[in-house]
């Protein structure tokens, strides 16, 4: 029996996934176009994204009153982890290729599994071990190819820091997401991350204002397109598609970002990045699919 029009999603969830991947893939390109300090880029991106999410969560602000002191401390730590993630990821793009940076940063599901085992006592399956090992080997191949390129290796390490702190953010926020809706949660952690980054910038004597209009437009584009449109498209798709399908869509960002880097920056990935990147993405796929099948 055909479903009624009321049961049909207003936008195809598969189309939403494609839009989400395309939107998130633009982040690296906008960062490369900007001439500002990475901390300023990341700080304004988070602060503006926080204001955007705040507008979407005005009806749910009462949820903050139900949080305990422990919850608030976790929220603060989650926001600080997110700040380090975006700060290190943005900085990595000044030292390594878009392809290498996005592949390494998007290996965060691997560290989520590891941290969940260490901090939450969750079991690791054999398939997850295989996926983790495959991703680690791929990361080693990427960095080995950059061993004689000091700047690239430094950028790879910054991207790795971004991956680990993103995983920390996700694990820390697991309990809070059960108590808060998505919009107020992201508005708060984005805001904390933005304030954290801009405060560090202030103490490092990096100017907080006085940038050309072009720079502010790039900050806004980062907040609206990859942070707003991209991640919200994923969340929309989650309502209609299996978690496994949406989770594995993370593999699309490095591919999309690499294609955009070729088109707009003329940046051809290093052979080690292509080989190691394929292994990292395969490892993430095995790990995510294993985690989903076991739940």
Name the descriptors.
mainly alpha, 14 helices, 295 residues
What percent of residues adopt helix (DSSP H or I)? over 70%
Counted by DSSP, the helix tally is: 14
Query: How many domain regions?
Result: 1
The first-to-last residue Cα distance is 31 Å
Low-pLDDT residue spans: none
Total strand segments:
0
Backbone shape: globular
Task: Describe this entry's structure for a reader.
The chain has 295 residues and is mostly helical. It has one domain (13-293). 75% of the residues lie in helices and 0% in strands. Helix 3 (38-56) packs antiparallel against helix 10 and helix 5 packs parallel to helix 8 (150-172). The longest helix is centred in the C-terminal third of the chain and has 26 residues, at 213-238.
Quick synopsis:
This protein is an all-alpha fold and 295 residues long. It has helices at 13-25, 27-33, 38-56, 69-92, 98-105, 108-120, 126-145, 150-172, 176-179, 182-203, 213-238, 243-248, 252-265, 271-293.
Topology:
Blueprint lengths: L12 H13 L1 H7 L4 H19 L12 H24 L5 H8 L2 H13 L5 H20 L4 H23 L3 H4 L2 H22 L9 H26 L4 H6 L3 H14 L5 H23 L2
